[in-house]
Write a structure and sequence with these properties.
Oligomer: single chain
Shape: elongated
Strand content: under 5%
Radius of gyration: 25 Å
Number of helices: 2
Order of helices and strands: HH
Distance between the termini: 75 Å
Length: 58
Amino acid sequence: MTTRGIRLLKKFADDRGDVPGWVLITLMTAALVILIWALAGPALSDIFQNAIDKVSGI
């Protein structure tokens, strides 16, 4: 194996990940889901209820 290949393998073998970064991404994603749900929830509920009413014939 070449010196370049050994350096590349060492670089990837020492990769432990970025836990604080992943935690931040997870929290930001959860916050976005909650925000979108809060804004679109009532409208989606109305759409669903209208669809059920039309199918039921009410």
